[in-house]
Write a structure and sequence with these properties.
Strand content: under 5%
Radius of gyration: 22 Å
Shape: globular
Helix content: over 70%
Order of helices and strands: HHHHHHHHHHHHH
Mean pLDDT: 85
Number of strands: 0
Number of helices: 13
Distance between the termini: 48 Å
Length: 316
């Protein structure tokens, strides 16, 4: 077992737990991404009693959220917290960053898929009721003083409620993947700072597996098939798969950007300008970059150019 420093004095543990509970309640929906962090940290150190203590705190925070009339996070927040065990065990087993993320994401997605499947009839009824309410709001907006932005948001929500079957699972997978990347990054940072547990990888090195390109090709072929022979089954698979793959490649593109920033260390103003420029290009640009990284392996190019730049600076 690796040597460890104490993360916090025992006298501050309950203060830490109180802050965790308050954060889960007031930082919704970001709290879903924060929930696994302390559980994973302690599970990675084999301090299981403290890990279970934070699961109990998460359950209390979910019930408090429900009692206050906020989002009913009772069961979801506990599930997200317990996913910290999977993440912690993956770290303890020596898995690299991207493997820990992939395994934890898959486990949580399977759990969520089973839950949605068991409650599908209830979900359909709630979506139908929500669609009726949104349609009424849109009709009333014709006579009311509603801003263009608010009307656009209502129409986007209407589109989602009309097509939720075809994007729900893809959105769920993408949201989970983004959340687990965020959680894992925090856990890695915490463990690297306060323990001697050996860790490999980081979000900057989050490169998608090359085999994922076949999922992208499959999504494209299904999309073309749905355009030629429209049908709910093909549309279900093509849209959900496309959304899932898009998010995965977008994260790869984002990690490439952070990798380049770390390698070249640009001036903060230049980095900010580049980020704003990317926002004008649209988020799809990062997904395209992430896709072509499958063949280009851009991190090697970044490393070679960064080394060349250092050499030039050294000889100047």
């Amino acid at each position: 077992m690796p040597l460890q420093r104490t993360i916090e004095p025992s006298g501050r543990l309950w203060l830490f737990a109180f802050g965790y509970a308050v954060g889960l309640v007031i930082l919704q929906p970001l709290s879903l991404m924060l929930a696994p962090v302390p559980v994973a940290v302690y599970a990675a150190q084999r301090r299981m009693s403290r890990a279970w203590m934070f699961v109990a705190v998460a359950f209390f925070a979910g019930q408090l959220s429900l009692a206050l009339g906020m989002a009913p996070l009772g069961l979801p927040i506990v599930l997200f917290a317990m996913v910290g065990f999977i993440l912690g065990w993956s770290i303890r087993a020596g898995q690299i960053y991207r493997h820990a993320v992939a395994g934890t994401t898959l486990a949580l997605f399977v759990i969520l898929t089973v839950m949605l499947s068991l409650q599908w009839d209830v979900l359909e009824e709630s979506m139908s009721d929500a669609l009726v309410k949104i349609e009424v709001q849109i009709e009333e907006s014709d006579s009311a003083d509603v801003s263009e932005t608010a009307l656009t948001n209502l129409n986007i929500l209407k589109w989602f409620l009309e097509n939720y079957r075809y994007v729900l699972f893809g959105n769920a997978f993408g949201t989970i993947l983004v959340g687990i990347c965020f959680s894992t990054t925090l856990v890695y940072h915490w463990l690297r700072r306060y323990t001697e547990i050996p860790l490999t990888g980081s979000f900057r090195e989050f490169r998608t597996p090359d085999a994922l390109v076949w999922a992208a090709i499959t999504a494209g072929l299904l999309w073309l098939a749905n355009d030629r022979w429209p049908g709910e089954t093909i549309q279900f698979w093509s849209w959900n798969l496309a959304v899932s793959v898009f998010v995965w490649y977008w994260l790869n593109g984002l990690s490439l950007l952070l990798y380049a920033f770390a390698a070249f260390k640009p001036h903060p103003a230049a980095a900010l300008f580049f980020v704003v420029f990317l926002l004008f290009l649209g988020i799809s640009f990062l997904a395209v970059a992430g896709l072509f990284d499958t063949w280009g392996n851009f991190r090697k190019t970044i490393d070679s150019r960064a080394e060349a730049r250092k050499s030039d600076d050294g000889t100047a």
